[in-house]
Design brief:
2 helices, mainly beta, single chain, 4-stranded antiparallel β-sheet, Methylamine Dehydrogenase, Chain H, Immunoglobulin-like
Length: about 500
Amino acid sequence: MIKRLRHCLASALLFCAGTGAGLAAQAPHAASDPDVPLSAHDRVYTADQTSNTVSVYDPSRNQLLGVLRLGDVTPQNLSPLYRGQLLVHGLGFSFDHKTVAVVSIGSNSVTFLDAATNAVKYVTYVGRSPHEPFFTPDGSELWVTVRGEDYVSVIDPATYQEKDRIVVGNGPGMTVFRPDGKYAFVCSSFIPETKVVEVQTHRIVATVPQASPFSPNIAATPDGRQVWFTLKDVGKAQLFRAEPPFEVLATLDTGPITNYVNFVRNRNGQFAYVTVGGENRVKVYTTTDAPELVATIPTGELPHGIWPSGDGTRVYVALENGTGINVINALTNQVEARINGGQSSQALVYVPGAVPTGDGLAHLEPLSASGLAEHLLLGPPGSSSQAAPTTVTLDNQGLIDLLQAAVTGLKPEAAYRLALVRDRADPYREFEPLSTFQTNAAGAAIVNTLGPLRRVMAGSAASDDRRYLVIVPVEEGNRPEPVQVQRE
């Protein structure tokens, strides 16, 4: 009889895992939960900031299914009567895998999506410039970091209304929960400290120092032992113990424009995957108390959000300047697929069993203009074509283009100017400034500007209108030589 019960229990667990009904031993779930084998019921979502879309992928076929349009592109979205969502940026999902929460930082909104049908269930408006949302493990609350203010907005998913505000200090970047749901960890994008909050009481119980003020992302290991956060302004990642006294364990030099971190558990062990935008790489570390770098994976341009599949065999990476995602085999740490998607993808989540039945195509549109972009490279004058530390994307907005440059390889905390020139050998003969910017402590910056740029920057070299991008230091009264120039 006992043998039969054991057999039935094992069969039930296998059935749940195969159908996506079970939970995953991958982030944000606990290591003790069963894996969910990759299937056509799963979905990958990216938040596409420039096209104001959510791209929806089928990981079983490495295929984009379409985009969910939450807003219009520029300049339509600049109207004072505009009603769509603006700057679609952050993502989270409920632990039952039925609801996806989408944060739009320009319209101060949280859009609740039905994962199975892509239908918008509700839109909740919160404070200035929210960044990332995530549900408590018991599903009773959604915590949204309101980065433009000083609090976490706690929303009741049953009513979609704010029920509390947890004041944590200026500029909260993101909240992550320890898998057992006891503690929440809130990093900051404005001040150098992470807050530890007791989830049941909403009470701050500890403060963890950050090595710099700008942390956009934080994640907890599935085994519940560690919390990692990234420091985008200095190119580092830090980790601390996920239990009192929450001491910092290590500070890692990861590289310029360190964006997001997440974890994978598979037959090889448990590892941290960190996206490093300035190097266009994902770096893989052990999750020992003194982490070791075990792999470096080249990706497309400016990797940003990252999430594992429900069984830990794949890792999905949003390419902010690459207009799509990369699929990494987490057993071999090799990129096995590249899939086009929406413009300027930021956050990415993998939701096992998001579509239990049906094709999950309702409310989706073809990619069409949402994926149109030109990609350029800048590097030091006279250097090889491979030495291109700056990547540039020109996202098609219809009548105009949005330029985003992921600039690296410059002096730290120095002023520079991005400009258009006709002749790279004689840049000041026709010199048209586009943007002045300041690099961070890692000698990097994200630079944005708008204009009818593709016509003059991506056309034929023989065209009378052809212009080239250059970066020059800002020196009042002088005309310094370019430190980076556009490649052919």
